[in-house]
User: What shape does this take?
Amino acid sequence: MKLGMRKPSLKKRIAARTSLKRLIVHRAEIKMPRGYGWLRNPKKYAYNKVYNKTSFDIFKLLKKLFK
Assistant: This one.
């Protein structure tokens, strides 16, 4: 489990926005409503919940500082 600042990765940022799986799910409109991640994959939901509370993104931090 990661604690503290996350290491930014440009490659992963681009891949997440251009993935074939994401395009198919969004075009077919089979997305789950927000907040229902626990229903689709409870183990992943629990992991992500803890991960997001214990780590932070440097870009979001910079955005808050210069807002």
User: Anything to note?
Assistant: The CA atoms of residues 20 and 26 lie 10 Å apart. The longest strand covers residues 4-6.
